[in-house]
Amino acid sequence: MTINDVSCYNEISMMPPYPIPKAAAILMTLLEDKGFEAYIIGGFVRDLLLGRFGGDIDMATNASTQQMIELFKDYPLSKIGEKLGTIGVKIMDQWIEITTYRSEGTSSNYRHPDEVRFIGSLKDDVFRRDFTINALAINIYGDLIDYTDGCIDLKKRQIKAIGHPEDRFQEDALRILRALRFSVQLGFTIEDKTSLAMIKSQDLIKTLPIERISVEFDKLIQSQHLEPLFKNYPELLKICIDFDPTHIQHIEQFSDKGLRYLCLLNHMNAEKIQNQLTHLKHPKSFVLKVSLLKILSEIKTQDRYTMKTLLGGYGKELVLLVLEYQKTLGMDGIDPLLMTELIKEDPCVSLKDLAINGDDLLKMDHQGKTIKVILNQLLELVMKDEIKNDKASLSQAVSRLS
Ligand code: ATP
Ligand code: MG
């Protein structure tokens, strides 16, 4: 079934025939020339209809993985997903994933199907997919194929599970988080039955590997429309992260991901934040960043020297983020005007900013450990505005110090 009824496309940005990216067209032609079917399917089509061109391309075909490997032998291939019927093909600098039509059996661990059955038609394949808007396909002519009324749901701007929602979440609990993630990424509502089933099945999320939860949650947290989501699904989201809703109305004002996490975890001390983010498998550098932001966010000062120590100890970037955080949450913290002026001055706040270094002191007959001590004393004097940061003033000070 291809759709040519133009009324379907009100409020959908693109009209058929849809443009097929060249890389995909080459692979589709290779498959079709050998008598196979080939469609672009999933997120790429959904986004294309919403006027968002780009993103990863997924394709579906009735060719087996062995047939694909033979057909695409001149291209770099990825066979990681071969058992599940997927081959990755690198073409024109991008990886395209092509999956043999399949259906999935029941799942005993809420994530991996117990068996994958390869089947004969696109029509059967689309019903194993998660949401109607993710089951749209286009053929090489740019016609849309819509077996699940995905186009209607795109128009209604809603996420709707394909088939019986509770069963679909039992099969794979990750779909619960994908629904939330798509709803905030696209600004869509979640259809009532799908939403009820998500809440009813929310405990299944606990059975997922933490990495999977974290990847979805991380995409979610960087989207818009978060406030209603946290209000509508508090218990469900608590399973992902132990958040506090107090400042949730501010979260979207932050473009920095670290500040978004801090906003959710503001009720915890730095150590607990570290534990929570480490548990979610965030990289060490990110865990450190958010816990430092937490420590800095609790500092209240109008003192110029203290502000310089903050710049020296934490760096300008973290300090600027914390100014933004404290201002947005209306916190009484680091004086924003004084700090902004200070940053403009680009003051000396660390040994590397000093106009004198270890080599200079060596030439002045100082050595070893004393050099470090003297440099630190000079730094403190400069930061306290007691001497100027130029070589002459510093050299004079050195003779006074030693
Ligand atoms: P994104 O923009 O994040 O790439 P996407 O919809 O393309 O969104 P992918 O994870 O790339 O998501 O998956 C491609 C397609 O595979 C989906 O559109 C959907 O049809 C199907 N799919 C992915 N994950 C699942 C799942 N857990 N259950 C059922 N179908 C899925
Ligand atoms: Mg995708």
Briefly summarize what is shown.
The protein is α+β, with helices and mostly antiparallel strands and 402 residues long. It is 48% helix and 10% strand. The radius of gyration is 29 Å and the shape is elongated.
Architecture overview:
The protein has 402 residues and is of the alpha+beta class. The protein folds into four domains: 1-156, 2-Layer Sandwich (Beta Polymerase, domain 2), CATH 3.30.460; 157-240, Hydrophobic Seed Protein (Orthogonal Bundle); 270-345, no CATH class; 351-401. Helix content is 48%, strand content 10%. The protein is built from 20 helices and twelve strands. The protein has an eight-stranded mixed sheet. Strand 4 (77-78) and strand 5 (86-91) form a beta hairpin. Helix 12 (257-264) packs across helix 14 (284-297) and helix 15 crosses helix 17 (336-345). The longest helix has 16 residues, at 368-383. The radius of gyration is 29 Å and the shape is elongated. Bound molecules: adenosine-5'-triphosphate and magnesium ion. The site of magnesium ion (MG) has 4 residues, from loops.
Features:
Hydrophobic Seed Protein; two-stranded antiparallel sheet; alpha+beta; binds adenosine-5'-triphosphate; binds magnesium ion; 10% strand; eight-stranded mixed β-sheet; 402 residues; disordered N terminus; Beta Polymerase, domain 2
Helix content: 40-55%
Residue share in β-strands: 5-15%
- What ligands can be seen in this structure? adenosine-5'-triphosphate, magnesium ion
How many helices in DSSP terms?
A: 20
Low-confidence stretches: 1-8
CATH architecture of the largest domain: 2-Layer Sandwich
Number of strands: 12
Q: What Rg do the Cα atoms give? A: 29 Å
CATH superfamily of the largest domain: Beta Polymerase, domain 2
Largest sheet: 8 strands, mixed
Number of domain modules = 4
Q: Write down the overall mean pLDDT.
A: 93
Q: What fold name goes in the CATH topology slot of the largest domain?
A: Beta Polymerase, domain 2
Structural class: alpha+beta
Strand order of the largest sheet: 1-10-9-2-3-6-5-4
CATH class of the largest domain: Alpha Beta
End-to-end separation: 89 Å
